[in-house]
Amino acid sequence: MNNWRLYGDIELDPVLRAALEAFVETGYHGATVRDIARRAGLSVPGIYHHYATKQDMLLTILDLAMEDLLSRSRAAKEEANGDSVRAFALLVECLVLFHCHRRDLAFIGSSEMRSLEHANRARITALRTAQQRLIDAEVDAAVRSGRFRAAYPRDAARAVVTMCTAVPSWYRADHESTPEQVAARYVNFALGIMHYEGAPPA
């Protein structure tokens, strides 16, 4: 990925875009295939030509969201050149930017995990675990070097991720702060949670 901070429209086919819109407005269980078809400008049989079930639509949306986030997160980590504190700060920045710019995708990722069937939930959970482990690895390294002094660093790392993933519950495109401003504040919050007392990572 050339620039993990740069966001445009994510590529969703008309069915997935309609499904995402419906899931955000009415929830997964409230959305009907008929309504999704109407939003997409297709017939119900036309929808089933693309996706066999509504569950397939939800899984595909969450797969795309996690692939986008993980790709950006790995690029952010690479930018740190092995500095664990800087990598942690960049990963937090990346998380917040994603949850601002991809608010609808992130909101569904948070609110509709319970709607996934068991095998599908396990698949998305594995991707979310991979995201958490990116953070955990940098926290562990910063603790070993004495730069993070949180008493319970793994608990603190989970708290940081939870704080970031909650952003879609309140952030809107017309908010007075830009995504970049929110991300900068959250990086400072996260470093405070980790009891980091050094200079802010460049």
Walk me through this protein's architecture.
This protein has 202 residues and is an all-alpha fold. The chain has a domain at 53-193: Tetracycline Repressor, domain 2. The protein has helices at 14-26, 33-40, 44-50, 54-79, 84-101, 103-111, 118-144, 153-165, 179-193. The chain starts with 13 loop residues before the first helix and ends in a 9-residue tail after the last helix. The mean pLDDT is 96.
Percentage of β-strand residues: under 5%
Number of helices: 9
CATH architecture of the domain at 53-193: Orthogonal Bundle
- Supply the CATH class of the domain at 53-193: Mainly Alpha
Distance between the termini: 21 Å
Instruction: Report the major sheet.
Output: none
* CATH topology (level 3) name of the domain at 53-193: Tetracycline Repressor, domain 2
Structural class: mainly alpha
> Got a strand count?
0
Whole-number mean pLDDT: 96
Element order, helices and strands?
HHHHHHHHH
Helical residue percent band: 55-70%
Give the overall form. elongated
Unreliable stretches (pLDDT < 50, length at least 5) are none
CATH 4th-level superfamily of the domain at 53-193: Tetracycline Repressor, domain 2
Rounded to an integer in angstroms, the radius of gyration calculated over CA atoms is 18 Å
